[in-house]
Here is the input.
Amino acid sequence: MPAEDKTIPIPNLAQARQKSSVAHQILVKLKEQGLEEDYDDDLAKLCTDLGDLWGAQLSFTERLGDFLDTETAIVDSWHKFGDCLADICSELEHMAWHIQSVKGPIERIAQRAYQADDQNPYETRVV
Here is the structure.
């Protein structure tokens, strides 16, 4: 591919801020609920992975839209299809990594949530 055909992707700063906000909202929600400091490592991974998954699903949707918007039966359309499919594959691999990474933390925090509920089944929380 000639050098002039290569474009440098522009970072989506608004999406990065939104992703960070989602991660922070998860953190605040669980800390306000009373999640103990013993879970801080899991909570950090949970917030990061879920925030990144939220952002990745937006990127995935965008990449899929790019693929569906690619014109057919034009010169070089197969090359464009290949590029779009490679981008989709990259997004899926990114999502798969975060899905695998979040499994342990989400299971441990969910287990903690069920244990807390079992210990205080009739407690009403006033905020």
